[in-house]
Structures are given as structure tokens and as C-alpha cells.
Amino acid sequence: MFSHLMQRSMLTVQTERRGALVSRVTSDVTTLQEFLEWGGVMFLVNGTQVVMSLGVMAAYEWRLAVLVLVGVVGYAASLLWFQKILRRRYDRVRENVANSLAVMGEAINALPEVRAYGAEETTLARVADALERRFQAQFKAAHFGNVLFSTAEIFAAALTAVVIAAGLLLGPDEGITVGVLLAFLFLVNLLISPVQTLVEILDFAQSAASGLRRIVDTLDAPIEIPEAENPVDLPPGILDVGFREVGFAYPGGPEVISDVSVAIPPGSRVAVVGATGSGKTTFAKLLVRLLDPDRGTVLIGGCDLRSVSRASLRSRVAFVPQEGFLFTGTIADNVRYGRPGASDAEVTAAFHELDLDEWVGRLPAGISTPVGERGSSLSAGERQLVALVRAWMSSPDLLVLDEATSAVDPALDVSLRHAIDRLIAGRTSVTIAHRLATAEAADDILVFDRGFMVEHGRHQDLLTAGGTYAGLYEDWATGTAVV
Description:
The chain is of the alpha/beta class. It has two domains: about 1-220, ABC transporter transmembrane region fold, CATH 1.20.1560.10; about 240-475, 3-Layer(aba) Sandwich (Rossmann fold). The chain is about 60% helix and about 10% strand. It contains 16 helices and ten strands. The chain has helices at about 1-5, 10-15, 20-60, 60-110, 110-115, 120-170, 180-220, 280-285, 310-315, 330-335, 345-355, 355-360, 380-395, 410-425, 460-465, 470-475, and strands at about 240-250, 255-265, 270-275, 295-300, 305, 315-320, 400, 430, 445-450, 450-455. Helix 3 (about 20-60) packs antiparallel against helix 4 and helix 4 packs antiparallel against helix 6 (about 120-170). The longest helix is centred in the first third of the chain and has 51 residues, at about 120-170. The model has no long low-confidence stretch (mean pLDDT about 80).
């Protein structure tokens, strides 16, 4: 289940709340597993007991057996009707469990903002409301299930009364002796326990069925960008990049990349600039195939990305996103995501190659320093440094940095810039720039505006042209740029 979730399309994952996804992997799977472990066996055992009891009744007196069978069938029919109501209530329970997990997760992740704005009471109220709705949904479902379970007692009492009345009505003249009647009453009492168990299993089955539908929905969701039937590997050596009339739109929205065509020679140092919302980040995601274009072609090494194997692409292309995510563990653990199985010596050497050995040496435990959840024990700039070393460890031939110099503390700015320079040396690089100063040394600058690549060229040539880039650079120089 989790393996499939890890392969799902980025677009579908980003549109769902994290709490709902966690609920499906944990509580839904657990409920279904518990039902499969004992529900089927108990249903078979108790169902067999009911059938055998009815068979013995038929051997004694078929008319009374038919009467009991009609009662059992009628009771089963009523259960099927109640089943629909119970299923809807368990669906609401699942929805509220997922919502409460999401609300609590958001509150924990946003704790600094909550405290900064003095919103503790508001946040607690939101969490309390979500938990109250979860409790109410669980209470109503449990109450209805208990009512359904208690009907077994009513059914047994009613069936006993009907059998006695029918036996007395038929009497000895029809072969209903006291012994036969007592045998039927004994067998009816034998039916009570298995019927109660069957009702309990049915109650549990509703919860399992609700979870199963959510699991199936998850498994039916689109997986990551699909692999080609006969995928190819990228050619050896430093890679070139090409966009040919590429267009892309997110579901239900306008195009955010329109008619983009560009050729990036191997070994080039390219910067992508533009105002916020101009399409820079989407361009980067298309380049590393986190997204596929709606039209046009993206090429790396002369190969259409849709024909390249995912393994080859991920091993040859490194992507450093705007905020490099760090997993719970040590700095070395996170760096090894770039090269699984790397030794401590190799990790230390990677920091040395990027001239970051002095920085990592100042940490309490060096590369063994814990980073905390999501890298919480490190500053934004330090997290970026670790992400850059992780990219270095993968030895990519094409490097894509999405706004990798944004949100950096001044004390680390020089180290970060130097590390980037060392990282991109000798390989093709595409930097999605937040600050236009990072573009000045680029071989080519791609300028985006509202999804279009409106111009490209070297820094000085673009300034001389007096176009969009010149305006952005002027805004940056005066501190008013939002890029």
C-alpha cells in the first residue's frame, strides 16, 4: 500500500491532505487485516452451525423448520437493509478520522506561526472541533452497531414464542410431541450465539468494507509518470537539454508553460528568471520529469524524456528543490540518499569537495549530528547545504536547482554560493533563480513571463536590450523584485 502511494502522481498526492493518506496506510489497512484474519473463519464456523441446526430441525419436523428458516431469512433481510445505513456511518467515521489527523498534523507543523500570531486558542478550537466531530461520528456508528447487535436477543425471543405457539397449535395430532417441541426450543437457543456472532461480524465488516473502498481508491489512483514500454538509458557523458514547443497546464487551469522552445548545450550554466508565477518552477519539474508536458517534447541527451527509463533519469539528473527536505536522522543519513551505502569517509569527502568541511566540523557531532524532524535543528541555509552535498553524492551529469539560493541566512550565504559553484562545475546546470544576482555569471539566461520564455541571452546582452530581464534586474537592484 505504502509502496504504491510512493509511486503516485505528484499532482494527485499534492491535492490530498496528508492525514487522509496516513489514515489509509494505517487504520484502514489494519482494520481490513484484522477482519481478514478472523472474520472469514468465524463467519464460516458460525454459519455452519446455523445451517446444521436448521438441518436437524428439518429432520424432526419440516414445517416448524420452515417457520424457523423464514424467521432467519427475514432477520437476514432486515440486516441487509440496516447494512446500508451502517456503511454510511462508518464512511463518515473514516472521513472524520482522516480530517482530525490532518488538522492535528497542520497544527503541529505550523506551531511557530501559531505562537507568533498568538493563535493558540483558535488552533485548539479547530482541533477540538475536528476531534468532537470524529467522536460524534464514532459514537453514532457504535450506537447503531450496538442496536443492531441487540436485535439478536429480540429475534431469539420472538422466534421462541412463535415456535411454541405453532407447536401448540399443531399439537400431538400433527406429530408435534413435547419432545419435538423441546428439541426445537433447544435448537433455537443454539442459534442465538452464532446469529449474534454473525451480526457482530457483519458490523465489523462494514468498517472493513469502508476501509477497503478507500484502499481501492488509493490503488486505482494514477501512479507516477508512467514508464515507457521499451525504455532507453540516457547516453553517457555530460547531457544537453532541449524543449520543443512545450506547453503544460495544471488540471482545470490555464497553461503555465506555453510554447517554450530552447536548446541548452552540454556543460552550459543556465539561469531561469522571472517574476513569481511566471512558470520557472514548472519548467524545472518538466525538466526532471516530475510532470509530463501536455504538448511538445522535453529532451535530455537527445532522448525524449517519455522514452527514458526512470532509473536512468534519476541516476543521471539531480534536483535540488526550493526547500531541500531532510529526513529524521543524522546529516550523514540524509547525504546518503544521494548515494545509498556510502561510507562515513565518502560523506566527509563530499563536504570537503564542496569546501564545507569547516562548517560541518563546527557541528556538535560532525556528520553524525541529528537534524531533527524535517531538519528542524538546522537553519534554512544549513538545510540547503546538506541538500547540495546530497546532490553532489549522486554524481549527476545534469543538475537542476530550484531557487536554491533563496531563504539563506547571511552568515552562510558565501559558503552556499561557493558550494553551488563547485557543484555545477563540469556539468550541465539549470538554476531557477530567486535573486537575479545568481544569473550574472550564467552562460545563458532564460527569462519567463506568464508562462512564455520571452527572451534569453547573457546578462550584459539582456541588460542592453532593455527588455523584461532589464526591468527585473532594475527591481532587484532597488530591492523591489519579487522573483
